[in-house]
Amino acid sequence: SASTFPPPPTPRGFADLAASALVMLAPYLETPGRSPTLIHVVYSFIALPFLLPVCFVGRAPTLPSRVLSLRLLKWLGLISYGIYLWHWRIVYGLISLKPVRDTPGSTFVAVAILALGLTVACAAASYYLIERPALGFKSPRRREGAIRPAVPQPR
Prior knowledge:
The protein is mainly alpha-helical. Helices cover 68% and strands 0% of the residues. It is extended and about 65 Å long. The model has no long low-confidence stretch (mean pLDDT 76).
């Protein structure tokens, strides 16, 4: 008799797997004394099943692919390196201001919204004023996509 294989996992199955791992491992990882490196590595592996459905989708659009194709998210992806570079300096700068430090409860939501706005503004400015013009210095060969494949192509 022919052996039967289980059906391949669905995007929902990957998300369920990641959610289960997160629920089971989060209390263990968030205990004092855990290595920050271990925490980052484990959380990265937990995030992987959430990303797989987006990366390996068929031709039919899925909810994650439709969400990620929104113009705002595409633009945020364009400036994401600037967001990465600027966010910590801006958050740290805001929370070190005397009025924010001295306010009881420190209006977290207001600081977070202000930090988000300033971070996106700085990231956009650095992208359009520094990063995009610097991309013009790439070699013309790379810019035109003239890099030859490693394996010769049939003619």
